[in-house]
Amino acid sequence: MTDIAVFNEICTVAFNVIYFSVILTTIFVVILDNRNPVKTMAWILVLFFLPVIGLIFYFFFGRSTRKERLISRRGYTRLSKRPMAEYQQQAAIRELPDQSRLMSFFNRVNGALAFGGNDITVYTDGYAMLKGLLREISHAQKHIHIQFYIFEDDPVGRLLRDALIDKAREGVKIRVLYDDVGCWKVDHAFFEQMLFEGIEVQSFLKVRFPRFTSKVNYRNHRKLAIIDGKVGFVGGMNIAERYIRGFDWGIWRDTHVRISGKAVYGLQTSFLTDWYLVDRTLFTSAEFFPKIEPQGDVVAQIVTSDPVGDWRDIMQGLTMAICSARRYFYIQTPYLLPTETINQALQTAALAGVDVRIMMPKRADAWLIHKGSLSYLEELMKAGVKIYLYKKGFLHSKLMVCDDELSTIGSTNMDFRSFEHNFEANAFFYHRETALALKEIFLTDQRDCMLLSKNLWDKRSWKSKVTESVVRLLSPLL
């Protein structure tokens, strides 16, 4: 054997040793991270059977940041000082014993403050929401904070951009926050035009080499707007033409809510915390948390969740709500890839006689995620959960209502990504009339659905069953 052949053989062996050492070390790190066993096994399978691709995917998408903090405790205390003072002055919240445990939970783990005296308007289509948002923007006098996962450079995106530019020219201070991955396809000139007009624009966790890493996996999925610190918007709608026009095969059905009252403090706190994360500027001035007189009688609590910190706030709160349901729990979600905790809570509630209904689109915008969602339906129906498939178009709404008492609208989907990886925001309402109104919205949408029967579902092709089962193995990673 020649010297060159010996050298090549040594290099090959050395490469294999180093390569497999890296794979095994990565698997060891995944195990030591003490995640959900289902998610751990999913990563081990990917790393074992697709070592090269799996290693790349883990580097970009798999690493956990839950031991970190978004903002220091001292900084958050400064930010929440004024909302906390207003919160401590109210007595009405203590008069809600049925929901006090859930409110207390969100307060303890999330710092979410529940406020009474709010008025809300619910939007079930993009046109009405955009019209309401533009109207509030036109009334702005001091500052506007806008945050969406997606801003499209289309007629709707340009309409909002031009409205913001008009207000900036009037002297209103405007800050815009968009998600870097959600707006990957948007030409930077779209945002530069706002920058040239004095609007502060930031992208959330920019994804650029060489700092690509796992930031690509942690996206800001929140959809918020706060005008003068007094009126806020939160829900599932982004800024894009399809949210108004839909598709050629159907409408885009979504839910958003306008809030006026002290609950807007929660939306403002969420935005300013995210702004601090990307700009390192902490705004705590009283002008962002103005005095607000009671606007209505709705008790509302703005709850956020993120991949940072010890707890999965919204997922754990929803688990508590599902398990506490006595009569019914209705859910609208575009994607159904529940964590094992949520999956078991839904089945347990249904087995206990609670009327659990899940509404999801019959046709979705993401084939892979939809296939994974379908894999959960059989076991849910077996437990007594009713599955409704929306036929009129794409259902993107994230709405939940329970027992004519509790309801929520926000950006959180019923999937691993929303519960564990994304930055999300939901408004929780502890108010009978609001719950009844959202229940009616659900029942109205139900007329445009097909109720899935187990007998019909069992007749689908073996090819579909196999595809769904395979995709389900990857559901914790989708």
Characterize this entry briefly:
By secondary structure, this protein is an alpha/beta fold. Helix content is 45%, strand content 20%. It folds into 3 domains: 3-62; 73-90 and 119-298, Endonuclease Chain A (Endonuclease, Chain A, 2-Layer Sandwich); 313-477, Endonuclease, Chain A (2-Layer Sandwich).
Distinctive features:
478 residues; two-stranded parallel ribbon; 45% helix; Endonuclease, Chain A; single chain; 19 strands; 15-stranded mixed β-sheet; alpha/beta
Can you walk me through this structure?
This protein is an alpha/beta fold. It folds into three domains: 3-62; 73-90 and 119-298, Endonuclease Chain A (Endonuclease, Chain A, 2-Layer Sandwich), CATH 3.30.870.10; 313-477, Endonuclease Chain A (Endonuclease, Chain A). The protein is 45% helix and 20% strand. It has 19 helices and 19 strands. It has helices at residues 3-32, 37-49, 51-62, 73-79, 81-89, 100-110, 126-139, 155-169, 188-196, 242-245, 264-279, 313-324, 340-351, 367-374, 377-383, 416-421, 432-446, 454-458, 462-473; strands at 114-123, 143-148, 173-179, 200-204, 224-227, 231-235, 251-253, 256-260, 298-305, 328-332, 336-337, 355-361, 386-390, 393-395, 399-402, 406-410, 414-415, 424-430, 449-451. Strands 4-3-2-5-6-8-1-9-18-16-15-10-12-13-19 form a 15-stranded mixed β-sheet, sandwiched between helices. A two-stranded parallel sheet has the order 7-14. Strand 2 (143-148), helix 8 (155-169) and strand 3 form a beta-alpha-beta unit. Helix 14 (367-374) packs across helix 19. The radius of gyration is 24 Å and the shape is globular. It starts with a helix and ends in a 5-residue tail after the last helix. 45% of the residues are buried. The model is unreliable at 210-214 (pLDDT under 50).
